[in-house]
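One such given next:

>
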Amino acid sequence: MLFTVPQARAELARIRPKLDQLVAVRADAAELAASLAPGGPPTTLGGMPELKAAEALLDELITAVQETGAHLKGLAPLLVDFPAELDGVDVLLCWLEGDAGLTWYHRIDLGFAGRRPLTAEPATDATAQDRT
């Protein structure tokens, strides 16, 4: 599936609560795992059952994000890519945890290092099609 820029921005807004929840659960899981390690610091979050529940919830949230057609590329920090085509070039519209909105893209062959700001809606953006 290819997204247009407006479609990707709308989808990001729709899944944003799941992404925010993912960040919170990720932090809880990290704290729980650290507390369960030998000599780990105590936590008020619980123990092994709570860690297993957090891991299961993380899996559910990751699956929910991926089912939208977005690609979850990183967990810490969260990195979400939306496949698109800009001016005839295959790109990924790129959202990184902490970004206010979807304002970056990179060519598929360049990856994150080729990240550039989205400056304007390209003319061909409206022609993105489903490639599934």
Remarks:
- Residues 1-132 form one domain.
- The chain is about 40% helix and 20% strand.
- The chain has a mean pLDDT of 91.
- The radius of gyration is 18 Å.
